[in-house]
Specification:
- The complex is a heterodimer of chains A (about 525) and B (about 200).
- Chain A has 17 helices and 2 strands.
- By secondary structure, chain A is mainly α.
- Chain A has a single domain (about 30-510), classed as Cytochrome C Oxidase, Chain A (Up-down Bundle), CATH 1.20.210.
- The radius of gyration of chain A is 23 Å and the shape is globular.
- The two termini of chain A are about 35 Å apart.
- The longest helix of chain B has about 35 residues, at about 130-165.
- In chain B, α2 packs across α6 (about 130-165) and α3 runs antiparallel to α4.
- Chain B is elongated.
- Classes of the chains: A mainly alpha (about 525), B mainly alpha (about 200).
- At the A-B interface, α8 and α9 of A face α1 and α6 of B.
- Chain A: Keywords: Electron transport, Heme, Iron, Membrane, Metal-binding, Respiratory chain, Transmembrane, Transmembrane helix, Transport.
């Protein structure tokens, strides 16, 4: 009987007809691959909004004084840009899209542990997004606090803070649900023979990330809830007039939001660890070291939140402790860089588009990481706090790190997801323009910050004019690159040449199934006998 | 062919319980944030917290503690009785749990409305004339017991839903993990109260 079943071609998950038709076949689907794509499409929409806001801000900064918008508009633009990019894109980003799509396939499972919960978390995500975005249109004008909602301004300002904070609170539940789902999936659904140390590195990264999602998100959840109660009921948690302490808000906020940076970057590192061995045609160097450093980052990342508050007022001992811990967390990150570079040593490298993305990632991530060291040092931090330097560092890590890994993952797994190949030369051209634009945009901001330009200002003195022009030109260049990249992918999803099962000659399990995969991924659950990157 | 395209009925009780435990852990952390805030403000305003705590009625607090402890016991007994294939007893025990929870809420209602009628609620005139420590104490009192009461309501809805599943025999002696999970959730609600009760009523 199994013989005949093997003969019949199985429909791919894209063609499979379930109980519902049309769009309902997607938004009510519990298939992890469809949910992954739902996240991808929603994020594409939110990303275009937030990127447009970013571009508008750079246009405002092209000349001193008022250029295209006033101060209040600028404030609400950077607030919405931050809220959208952080809570709707980078925090859920890689786990929700590629984690959902590839985690079960990479560990040889048919779906995640709780498929219904998985669909539910997408719904929470959409509801949270609409609540957050509604803050722009309802009430007394868009929020203007920045994405950090610092007290006491967040409940003193007359703008429409409530939906923004509530939206972020609701989005936290989506993050927690995904985290629980992935932890249980990895514990319970690994294919026979896939021991922990035979698991590919992207699932490992998702595992570390999921624990941070589960352990850190509740803290920000309750903190945002306190802001909501503060605004509606005047309870006094963070209001000095009623006995509250605004610094306590900062502590509670960063106890989550610093680990959240590792929610953003760990899966990115996981993606790079998948791409590099595939195109180096070589086992990854120091598999165990990468696993251990992933867990070490997740662990140490909990104890560094204070470095966001070096100028807020803390005891000397606390300052030194947080500074030392911040330097410590750089060690496991550097270990990963060494491992990736060592993998390339004496490898027969195949220079395909995903690999170029990985190389660009290494370049920008190192700039981001090293500038982080500058900010982690106490004396330098006092000088650079709240300047454009911080913005540049942050974008090198979060956009340069997570963003590059996201596009790298998209170019790496695109043939598997859609069963078609994209136009490689357009992809490379887009990458080149994007990469040039990215560095032209953010490198001058390091210089601007060191020379004293503050962040979050819509205006500046004449001597900052030159670097700002360069930076704004970079923004336009980068956006052109993005448009080329996305157009190429969208066009190729329909019209690209058919991709086989294994276009990159990868060794992990996803390359053994059809492109696009069938509904249940595997006809039979595979028996894993090899290490994940066995090229010898 | 139709067999092939059908997703296998996947069942993993161990996994479902693992998921529930992790979720319970996140709930503890959620309240943990409030406990941190409580302990910091208590440390900063020891005298005001002491005076404010004397305003609370220890009798109602104790009664509610006993009610929740008993309800935790009845839901645990419900899990045992479904294993013994006694559907009727399971439903009765779950019903008692729900009734006890409602009794808790009735007590809470009288307690809160008593306070509010005395003009003690966040943002009230009387409270704003008191010391900052008292404002914070009652702010935390309403926020923490309010959030806890919300969990009671969710717990009641959850248990009522599982009761319906027991009635329709979707939950039976060889497949009762959701009943176990609802019981776990109820123990969590109980556990949090065990911490709230001394913090607000007993330490004076």
């Amino acid at each position: 009987m199994t013989e005949t079943l093997k003969q019949t071609p199985t429909p791919s998950f894209l063609e499979y007809q379930g109980r519902f038709k049309g769009i309902f076949a997607w938004i009510f689907s519990t298939d992890h691959k469809r949910i992954g794509l739902l996240y991808l499409y929603s994020m594409l929409v939110f990303f275009s909004i937030a990127a447009t806001l970013g571009l508008m801000m750079k246009l405002e900064l092209i000349a001193p004084g008022r250029t295209i918008m006033g101060a209040q508009t600028y404030n609400s633009f950077f607030t919405l840009h931050g809220i959208t990019m952080i809570f709707l894109i980078v925090v859920p980003g890689l786990p929700a899209v590629f984690g959902n799509f590839f985690l079960p396939i990479l560990i040889g499972a048919k779906d995640v542990a709780f498929p219904k919960l998985n669909l539910f978390s997408w719904w929470i995500y959409i509801v949270g997004a609409f609540i957050a975005l509604s803050s722009q249109f309802l009430g007394d004008g868009p929020p203007d606090t920045g994405w950090t909602f610092y007290a006491p301004y967040s409940f003193k300002t007359g703008t429409n803070m409530l939906p923004a904070v509530t939206g972020a609170f609701v989005l936290g539940f989506s993050s927690i649900a995904t985290g629980i789902n992935f932890i249980v999936t990895i514990h319970r659904l690994r294919a026979p023979g896939m021991k922990w140390m035979k698991m590919p590195l992207f699932p490992w990264a998702l595992y570390g990330t999921a624990w941070i999602q589960v352990l850190a998100t509740p803290i920000v959840g309750i903190t945002l809830l306190m802001v909501v109660l503060e605004r509606t009921l005047q309870i006094g948690f963070f209001d000095p007039a009623l006995g509250g302490d605004p610094i306590l808000y900062q502590h509670l906020f960063w106890i989550y939001s610093h680990p959240a940076v590792y929610i953003m970057i760990l899966p990115a590192m996981g993606v790079i660890s998948e791409i590099i061995p595939t195109f180096a045609r070589k086992t990854i160097f120091g598999y165990t070291a990468i696993v251990v450093s992933t867990l070490a980052i997740a662990f140490v990342g909990y104890f560094v939140w204070g470095h966001h508050m070096f100028t807020s007022g803390m005891s000397g001992v606390a300052l030194y402790t947080f500074s030392i811990l911040t330097f410590l967390v750089a060690i496991p990150s550097a270990i990963k860089i060494f491992n990736w570079v060592a993998t390339l040593h004496k490898a027969s490298i195949d220079l395909q588009t995903p690999f170029l993305w990985a190389l660009c990632f290494l370049f920008v991530f190192m700039i981001g990481g090293l500038s982080g060291m500058v900010l982690g040092a106490l004396s330098a931090n006092v000088h650079l706090h709240d300047t454009a330097f911080v913005v540049a560092h942050f974008h090198y890590i979060v956009f340069g790190g997570t963003g590059f890994a996201f596009f790298g993952a998209l170019h790496y797994w695109f043939p598997k997801m859609f069963g078609r190949m994209y136009d490689k030369s357009w992809a490379n051209i887009g990458l080149a323009i994007f990469f040039t634009g990215f560095n032209t945009l953010y490198l001058p901001m390091f210089y601007l910050g060191i020379t004293g330009m503050p962040r979050r200002y819509y205006d500046y003195v004449e001597r900052f004019h030159g670097p700002n022009i360069v930076s704004s030109m970079g923004a336009m260049l980068m956006i052109s690159g993005l448009i080329i990249l996305i157009t190429n992918l969208v066009r190729s999803a329909r019209h690209g040449a058919k991709a086989g099962k294994d276009p990159w000659k990868g060794k992990t399990l996803e390359w053994t199934v059809d492109s696009p995969p069938s509904l249940e991924n595997f006809d039979e659950i595979p028996l894993v006998t090899q290490d994940p990157y066995d090229y010898d | 062919m139709t067999d092939h395209a059908h997703i296998d009925e996947h069942r993993d009780d161990e996994g479902a319980k693992t998921g529930m435990w992790i979720f319970i852990f996140t709930e503890l952390l959620l309240f943990g944030g409030l406990f941190i805030v409580y302990s910091i403000y208590r440390y900063l305003n020891p005298m005001a917290f002491h005076l404010a705590a004397e305003e609370l009625d220890i009798f109602i607090g104790t009664a509610n503690t006993v009610i929740l402890l008993v309800s935790s016991m009845t839901i645990a007994m419900a899990v045992t009785s479904i294993q013994l294939k006694n559907k009727r007893l399971t439903l009765i025990l779950m019903g008692i749990t729900v009734c006890l929870a409602l009794a808790f809420m009735v007590n809470k209602y009288f307690e809160w409305s008593g306070k509010i009628s005395h003009g003690i609620f966040p943002g009230s005139e009387i409270l704003h004339q008191s010391s900052q420590g008292e404002i914070l104490f009652f702010g935390l009192y309403y926020a923490m017991t309010g959030l806890h009461a919300l969990h009671i309501i969710i717990g009641v809805a959850f248990i009522a839903y599982v009761m319906w599943l027991v009635k329709t025999e979707d939950v039976k002696h060889d497949d009762y993990v959701i009943l176990e999970n609802s019981a776990l959730y109820w123990h969590l609600v109980d556990l949090i109260w065990i911490f709230l009760f001394p913090l607000f009523y007993l330490i004076t």
